[in-house]
Amino acid sequence: MADNGISRRRLLGTAGATGLALGAGGGAVGYAAASSGSGSSSDGVSKAALASLGTDEVMFHGKHQAGITTPTQASGHLAAFDLTAGAGRKEAAALLRRWSATAARLMAGEPVAGDDTSVARDAGPSSLTVTFGFGASFFARTGLAKQRPDALDPLPDFSSDRLDKARSNGDLWVQIGANDSLVAFHALRAIQRDAAGAARVRWQMNGFNRSPGATAHPMTTRNLMGQVDGTNNPKPSDKDFDERVFVPADGDPAWMAGGSYVVVRRIRMLLDSWEKLGRKDQEAVIGRHKSDGSPLTGGTETTEPDLEKTGADGTLVIPVNAHARISRPDQNGGAAMLRRPFSYHDGFDGKGAPDAGLLFVCWQADPVRGFVPVQRKLDRGDALSEFLRHESSGLFAVPGGAAKGEYVGQRLLEG
């Protein structure tokens, strides 16, 4: 199922269904480039794909919020806000009304109402999406404690956690994605300006992905470890996709119908240590070939790994602690989540090591059945964990989409 008719324009194709379950996930539905049907260059790259990205438009109104199954964009921002002192339910409702109106205009390629900053002047919507969610603390702040979903209970502690509380959680959460960096920043700035007097920024992070049209054909992206990243994500065509990702119409609480729960983690990749490994050792950690993402047991990227296959020496071809083995849904009681992250690079630390990695974003109907069991298993014995550090974390309830004339969260705030 597409969330809000992904785009008004024809998609060239999709790629990238999952990736490293927590070390790096690929695009939710891959990336997409608009095409007007014009010709291709001699190497097969569509000229239209490289020239018309700005015209791609994602619908704001719909059953689900945009930015969940929308194809992964090249530029993204994640931000959490806390309500200001004295702000409550009334102020929160007014803020979500402003935010929804601003998001709808920007996603349609229109300037914001009033004094627009002109940051994105001359650009089209560029597949912009703006997605809103509520943290556990929001409900007490607004007198809605009885409406707080049980699914927002705190996540358990994991041994790989090195969490910075100042960059974790928050009353409100916003995800912004676009295929143009100026369009994405324009939206971020507009959202921040709309919040003035009602909420203040708690933390904000910037991410990126491969740009649509950068490869000869749509393909699974790579993460900052150089691994093909995005192979086994749940797909909208799967018969149980909605069941895994979205809260059902008769779900509890009722205001979350059509919504989803998002886990957000800033995962630093210890690239200096990772890059000291030879390619063969890196592949053993992951369980897949670095060149094309195929399992070490053979085939193509989409071939199911043969977890029982042994080599001439009698040892398992895919090691017992390989990430690809441990993160598979069939190794975790069927637990699955839709991973839709961004990479990040925030410069270098005092020792010259890159502060870089993954802004991990995963979607599920229930984090207790999605994120938690997989991360628990990874925490107990994933070979990749040695090269990762989880530095911030958040869990947010993302309500369903708004119909025309409504704003996101209206069923909660006015119910």
UniProtKB/TrEMBL annotation:
Region (Disordered): 210-240, 286-311
NCBIfam families recorded: Dyp_perox_fam, tat_substr_1
Catalysed reaction equations from the record: heme b + 2 H(+) = protoporphyrin IX + Fe(2+)
Chief localization: other
Species annotation: Streptomyces kanamyceticus
Cofactors (names): heme b
Cofactor note: Binds 1 heme b (iron(II)-protoporphyrin IX) group non-covalently per subunit.
Family in the record: Belongs to the DyP-type peroxidase family.
InterPro entries xrefs: Dimeric_a/b-barrel, Dyp_perox_C, Dyp_perox_N, Dyp_peroxidase, EfeB/EfeN, TAT_signal
Subcellular location: Cell envelope
Record-level Gene Ontology MF annotations: ferrochelatase activity; heme binding; metal ion binding; peroxidase activity
Residue ranges of domain Dyp-type peroxidase C-terminal in the record: 220-402
EC assignment: 1.11.1.-
Function: Involved in the recovery of exogenous heme iron. Extracts iron from heme while preserving the protoporphyrin ring intact.
Keyword Cell cycle among UniProt keywords: no
PROSITE patterns per record: DYP_PEROXIDASE (PS51404), TAT (PS51318)
Protein name: Deferrochelatase
